Amino acid sequence: MSQRFVAIWFRHLTTDALSRQQPELRHVPFVLAAKDHGRLVITAANPKATSEGITTGMVVADARAILPGLHVVDEVPGRESELLHAIAEWCIRYAPITAVDIPDVIFLDCSGCAHLWGGETEYVEHLQSRLNAFGYSVRISMADTIGTAWAIARYGRPPLIVAPGAQFDALLTMPAASLRLDRSIIELVVKLGLRQVKDFIGMPATALRRRFGKAFVQRLAQALGQEEENLQPVQPIEPYQERLPCLEPIVTAIGIEIAVKQLLDQLCLPLKKVEKGLRQACLKCYRVDGKIESVSIGTNRPSNNIPHLFKLFEYKLPTIEPALGIELFVLEAPIVEDIKPLQEKLWEGSCGLESLALSRLIDHLSLKIGAENIHRYLPDEHYWPERSIKNATTLDETASIPWKREQPRPMQLLASPQPIEVTAPIPDYPPMLFRYKGQLHKIKKADGPERIEQEWWLQEGQHRDYYAVEDEEGKRYWLFRLGHYDAAKTYQWFIHGFFA
Predict the structure, then answer these.
(1) At what angle do helices 183-191 and 214-224 cross, to 10 degrees?
(2) With b meaning 16 or more CB within 10 Å and e meaning fewer, what string describes 287-308?
(3) How far, in Å, CA of 364 to CA of 313, rounded?
(4) What are phi and psi for residue 433, nearest 5 degrees?
(5) Which of 167, 307, 410, 445 is 20 to 30 A from 365 in CA distance terms?
(6) Which residues of the chain have pLDDT under 70?
(7) Which residues pair with 338 in a beta bridge?
């Protein structure tokens, strides 16, 4: 399949955009102007102003002498780039690769796309009608090369679709300016009488390079397809991406679900072949009104399991608002990792952190309650309990040190100890009762003390004497006294956790 490119030339880009914002300007001649060495110089003119003889580069004072009622609007710096990038992103619904050529051209790599609209003529006509409906005056061409498409869009005569392999004949009658050359080179070429491409296309490349420079020969070779030219996409293409254009806009939830299932089938098949799975996926829905709806999912382990991935998307599909309809679905997998097969033991099931069922359960819970509310902990090299654990980044992360199992630890540990009121008989005896959040607890059983010191390089406070206690209701708590017991009762008691 040969490459095919589309060039969209916006004849009045900035003035058309301003007319969209202020419809009353469509019926009056107006220009955009910017200061240049103390003078206001016209940078763009709408069709009505152009028909009156107003041209780009003219001083505003001279233009008003020709047309006293001319309306002048200050130019916004960088407006062309902003508009072209926005429109190029909208054009992604017609081709996966779109690029801009400042100040007024957008390129599309439409290889293999036109048949989805019924052919190249229908493809170009549909794109033309949509842009015209938005209020933009454009000329759209299609050719095998970027250079030929650019030349035909600006200087060609209808039809603007160059047949595959016919770029040589199409360029013969084009002016020298059609090769996207600097103004100085164009003036030199025309001065020598080489006004059309056919006047120099048969000359030796060495002679052309010596007379006009390397850029001249390169542009000619690119236009003829003798040298490759690449586009710089406005949105980088993901290595794993699938597109699903729609013949009719999709407005129903069932239609969206069918589209997602089909895209997952297309995406997961190549992943399975190379033993990879996605960790993140993003579904983009391009609406008829130009807006883009998107939802994303993530997995704890790489996965190419279609039912599991669809279930994750199913939670978020109700948030998609199709409005007047969705005309293109794009599924991207920005993060893809190798799938490592797990070693299983005969007669034993996989029931640890390696369990795929566990990782899928966590994926579902993450969508329902948020990934930030699901934690896995590992031991950390600290003595104080609140510092002795840390959050694991993944399910596969392993502990660098073993868990401390010498003494029992509560199932629920408070992030920071809470002060309590305690009655204790004599030094080093467990408390008889304590009051926590206004409730009095009488202690029936107790075990301790367990003294926990701080690390010598921290030393931010006194040691702690911990007691595991049980009240009259059978509930168990983890309490501690801060510092040594003394008659002045300068010490304090705290609750730090709850046993099951």
Answers:
(1) 90
(2) bbeeeebebebebbbbbbeeeb
(3) 10
(4) -160, 160
(5) 410
(6) 1, 341-355, 395-396, 427, 459-460, 487-490
(7) 276
Q: Give the pLDDT score at 342.
A: 57
* Whole-angstrom distance, CA of residue 81 vs CA of residue 64: 28
**Rounded-to-integer distance, Cα 131 and Cα 22, Å:** 18
Distance in angstroms (rounded) separating the CA atoms of residues 450 and 479: 10
Backbone angles phi, psi at 125, to 5 degrees: -65, -40
CA dihedral for 415, 416, 418, 422, sign (positive or negative): positive
CA dist 10 to 49, 151, 202, 345, Å? Answer: 17, 13, 32, 66
Q: How many CB atoms lie within 10 A of CB 257?
A: 14
Can you tell me which residue has the tokens 């129903």?
252
Residue 395 and residue 372: Cα distance in Å, rounded?
14
Sheet holding 39-45, edge to edge: 39-45, 30-36, 71-74
385-409 pLDDT per residue, tens: 887 888 787 766 777 788 877 788 8
30-36 vs 71-74, strand pairing mode: parallel
What is the H or E stretch that residue 250 is in? strand 241-250
What is residue 425's DSSP assignment? S
**Could you give the CA distance from residue 230 to residue 257 in angstroms, rounded to a whole number?**
36
Torsion angle defined by CA atoms of residues 59, 61, 67 and 71, in that order, rounded to the nearest 10 degrees:
80
Backbone angles phi, psi at 259, to 5 degrees: -65, -45
Can you tell me which residue has the tokens 């960088």?
A: 78
Q: Where are the beta strands (DSSP E) in 392-488?
A: 412-423, 433-436, 439-452, 464-471, 476-482
Inter-CA distances, 261 with 101, 201, 269, 428, Å: 37, 52, 12, 66
Q: Which of 257, 248, 256, 300 is nearest to 278 (CA)?
A: 300
* CA 312/CA 46 separation, integer angstroms: 50
Return the pLDDT at 353.
Answer: 64
**Whose CA is closest to 108, among 235, 219, 228?**
235
**CA gap 312, 299 in Å, rounded:** 9
Residue 408: Cβ within 10 Å count = 12
What's the pLDDT at 358? 73
Q: How far is CA 349 from CA 343, 344, 353, 363, in A?
A: 11, 7, 12, 21
